[in-house]
Design a protein that fits this description.
The structure is a single chain. 77% of the residues lie in helices and 0% in strands. It has helices at residues 2-5, 13-43, 50-71, 77-109, 120-139, 157-199, 205-241, 248-259, 261-270, 273-286, 289-292, 304-327.
């Protein structure tokens, strides 16, 4: 990720080694989480709906971004430059895919449109095209160098300005758009719920809790990008003000939170009820019954107790039939 690529000067060799370890560990977690969502989409046919297809593209971008962060080698010029370009490209693509998810939800819920699937080609053009343009623009006028374990570090004022304009400007634009969009969606659903409660004498408490859970989940989505890139933004601003002085703890938070974005996205967007249901069904088909007793209750199939009851009834029936045969 871009935040990782710009940390460098003003830090000791030991500091850079620690930051490298933080980056590798956090990027590995993001890679595992994103790969899990990609595999779920590929393996489970019931997940191949348009809404989850956008989550798949988001996870794919996060997976590739994390992968190139892990495999980059500053000792080799070509691989180092390739890491810088690819991580910038796929990281920008990642937060742009979150805007398409927000746009789809807003268009469906607020505007009551059903043509979102027809916009898939436009989504690809918007995400991949914008990512390519800002990545190419970032290469103009920059001095490509690498300090310690990081590739493509901008040391000049012009390079830092271009980096900020081609990464952090669209990033915070996406954050503001997502926040405004989800605010409108949540407000409309809550107003509709109040109207439904006013027209009904009885409210289903289970549905009410489930609806509130979904609304709260949507409210967290914009916070993922804020939590992932707030320290990186502060670090970039500090680097403008005092270019020769790096703060280690700020760099550590910058590197760690940015590299964990893929993991945060995979949990918030990907590990939803549909994915859990698909996993439960596979567990029910392939795992022996005795394994269920060792699993946490939230990982057991919802009909686990029903299955056990049916099996117990079947065993009792078999016992009764055996006793009847013995008596005869």
């Amino acid at each position: 990720m871009s935040a990782v690529l710009t940390a460098g000067g003003g830090l000791t060799a030991g500091d850079r080694s620690i930051l490298t370890a933080i980056n590798t560990s956090a990027s590995s977690l993001s890679f595992v989480g994103s790969t899990f969502i990609v595999l779920c989409y590929c393996l489970f046919k019931e997940l191949r709906k348009f809404s989850f297809k956008l989550v798949f593209y988001l996870a794919l971008s996060d997976m590739l971004c994390s992968f190139f962060l892990i495999v980059g080698d500053p000792s080799k010029g070509f691989i180092c430059d390739a890491q810088g370009y690819t991580t910038h490209f796929f990281c920008v693509a990642s937060f742009l895919w979150t805007t398409t998810i927000a746009f789809t939800l807003h268009r469906t819920v607020v505007k009551h449109k059903t043509d979102v699937e027809d916009l898939e080609a436009m989504f690809h053009l918007y995400v991949w095209g914008t990512s390519l343009v800002v990545t190419v623009i970032r290469s103009f006028g920059n001095n490509h160098s690498h300090l310690g374990p990081w590739c493509w570090t901008q040391t000049g004022l012009k390079g830092k300005a271009v980096h900020f304009l081609t990464f952090y400007a669209p990033l915070w634009g996406a954050i503001l758009y997502n926040g405004f969009t989800y605010f409108q969606v949540i407000r409309m659903l809550r107003n509709a719920r109040r109207m439904a409660v006013g027209m009904s004498d009885r409210v289903d408490q289970f549905d009410n809790r489930a609806e509130l859970k979904v609304l709260n989940r949507w409210g967290y989505y914009p916070l993922i990008l804020i939590g992932s890139w707030a320290f990186g933004t502060i670090n970039r601003i500090h680097d403008f003000i005092e270019p020769g002085h790096k703060i280690f703890w700020l760099s550590a938070l910058d590197v760690g939170t940015a590299a964990l974005m893929g993991l945060f996205n995979s949990i918030a967007y990907g590990f939803n009820s549909s994915v859990r249901k698909a996993i439960h069904e596979r567990l029910e088909l392939f795992l022996p019954e005795r394994i269920y007793r060792w699993l946490p209750s939230n990982l057991r199939p919802k009909n686990h107790h029903l299955i056990m009851h049916q099996q117990q009834q079947q065993q009792r029936s078999e016992m009764v039939s055996l006793k009847t045969e013995e008596q005869q």
